[in-house]
Amino acid sequence: MNSNQKKLVTSTVPVLKTNGTDLTKHFYARMFKHHPELKNIFNMSHQASGKQQHALAGAVLAYAEHIENPEVLINVLKPIGNKHVSLNISPDQYDIVGHHLISSIKEVLGEAATDELIEAWTQAYNELAQIMISIEDDLYRSTLKKEGGWKGWRTFVIEEIVEESSEVKSFYLKPKDQGSIADYLPGQYLSVKLFIPGLGHEQVRQYSLSSAFNPKYYRISVKKEVNPNAPEGAVSNVLHQKNTGDEIWVSAPSGVFHAGVDGNQPLVLISGGIGVTPLLSMLETNKNKLQENTTVWLHSCRNEKAHAFKDQIDLLNQDSEWLTTHIFYETVSKNENNAIKEGRIDLAELKDEVLIDDAKYYICGPEVFIKVQYNSLIKLGIAQENILFEEFGPQLLHFN
Ligand SMILES: Cc1cc2nc3c(=O)[nH]c(=O)nc-3n(C[C@H](O)[C@H](O)[C@H](O)COP(=O)(O)OP(=O)(O)OC[C@H]3O[C@@H](n4cnc5c(N)ncnc54)[C@H](O)[C@@H]3O)c2cc1C
Ligand code: HEM
Which residues touch 318 (CB under 8 Å, ≥6 apart)? Predict the structure, then answer.
């Protein structure tokens, strides 16, 4: 790209800032019209709520803003690359996206879209696509190199189903081919692909691995999404109706939100609701090594019935001095254990417990929950680089 083309791209940033979401809405409608098969891999509920449009607009805008030095975007592009790899995105699909994105820029900008501007954007998109393809190629290769690693969709059989709370079920998954499975870092997720009868096509969702790695199976734990004011969650409801012996498609473990496996640092784990899953894997993985360090877990959920993995965490807590837990319920019934606190997590109130030298802070839960906990930690003086978080949806929160 020459400097004139870079200037042209940068000059469209203000337009993208005000119209970015319109542009991507137009783009998705156009692309799905020409490639309806892509509805099988895009999350159609995100499309309905506008979340994915926002995420893609954000990525395009970030790229346009940093066109002079796109390498600074690597921290933003890595999680997207991990998500793409877990969806088995291939280089040829970048041509489809590129074609519809550039055509949409033309159609949305109308006369303002000069040939020169369109050429500059085509170059910019191709450069971004090359960076992404290269990140994804590295990720595909490193998974394939692992014992039990694979690329794309592999058939797994549901070996066991365990009810963890009134709304969460764990699924123990074994590969149908009976081969070995790739290990993972605690906090990483799988993508699961299912045919959804109500939609008439497939859908993919991500689920965190909820236990320490066990070479015999993967375990995911899924909350049934029921919403009185909107359609019920497509994939979680179909999964909750599955029986042992049923088959689903699974992609290899992926994701950038993870702890290490050497337990050499104190951990402060902060979860809301189903955000418990990746943190439980971090705790289980490190439990032997963590004994030399402090671990604090703060968890909040609606009430005892909705509290998944309660017994498991109680058990770990009973015979360990290294682990402290603080459980919060929105409503506490009278005959409950008085160690349960009523209300929401207030990190400022618990600062003597959570301010630990050299600790890493992992937050997982709904968007608002993450915002509140992140801001509290910053106010308590925790450095940004020691706070890691994951949203269970398109990653829209960028604090650092
Ligand atoms: C990295 C990662 C890890 C995750 N880990 C876990 C995990 O361990 N456990 C877990 O349970 N989940 C996890 N999730 C969330 C999971 O991927 C799904 O998003 C979740 O199960 C909901 O999917 P669904 O298909 O059931 O619901 P969807 O169909 O995606 O719907 C989601 C919500 O949107 C609403 N909705 C649907 N359609 C519309 C519409 N047209 N208008 C308005 N609202 C609508 C639904 O009512 C529902 O509340 C994770 C997500 C990510 C990204
Ligand atoms: C340079 C080009 C691209 C950019 C900037 C981009 C950007 C993004 C972003 C920001 C997300 C959200 C990440 C997250 O959920 O955390 C995303 C997700 C996704 N991308 Fe891309 N992407 C590109 C190319 C592609 C291509 C070529 C495909 C394949 C057709 C694709 C398919 C998807 C899918 C299916 C998702 C998940 C959607 C969802 O869960 O709602 N993307 N992409």
Answer: none
Question: Cβ(52) to ligand 2 under 6 A?
Answer: yes
- Active-site residue (options: 28, 94, 218, 362): 94
Structural domains of the chain ordered from first start: 3-145 (1.10.490.10), 154-250 (2.40.30.10), 267-390 (3.40.50.80)
Mean residue pLDDT across the chain: 90
* The one-letter amino acid at 174: K
**Among 19-28, 160-169, 191-200, the least confident range:** 19-28
Nearest to 323 by CA among 351, 300, 352, 296: 296
- Residue 206's H or E segment, with its range, is strand 201-208
User: Picking from 64-73, 199-208, 343-352, which range would have the lowest pLDDT averaged per residue?
Assistant: 64-73
Closest CA to 271 of 381, 189, 390: 390
Q: How confident is the model over 227-255, as pLDDT tens digits?
A: 888 889 999 999 999 999 999 999 999 99
* Residue pLDDT, tens place only, 28-40: 999 999 999 999 9
Q: Is the pLDDT of residue 400 over 50?
A: no
Ligand lying nearest the CA atom of residue 127: 2
Question: Distance, CA 364 to ligand 1 centroid (Å)?
Answer: 14
Query: Which amino acid type is present at position 245?
Result: G
Which listed ligand is nearest to 70 at the C-alpha?
2
| 94 is known as an active-site residue | yes
Instruction: Report the distance separating Cα 19 and Cα 32, nearest Å.
Output: 20
Q: What is the pLDDT of residue 211?
A: 97
Residue 385 catalytic? no
pLDDT tens across 359-399, in order?
999 999 999 999 999 999 999 999 999 999 999 876 655 64
Q: In what order do the strands lie in the sheet with 387-390?
A: 341-342, 323-329, 295-301, 267-272, 360-364, 387-390
225 Cα to the center of ligand 2, angstroms: 23
Query: Is the pLDDT higher at 279 or at 127?
Result: 279
Mutate to test the pocket of ligand 1, among 83, 87, 225, 397 (most ligand atoms within 8 A of CB): 225
Whether 87 lines ligand 2, by a CB cut-off of 6 Å, is: yes
Ligand 1 centroid to 226 CA: how many Å? 10
Does the CB atom of residue 76 touch ligand 2 within 6 A? no
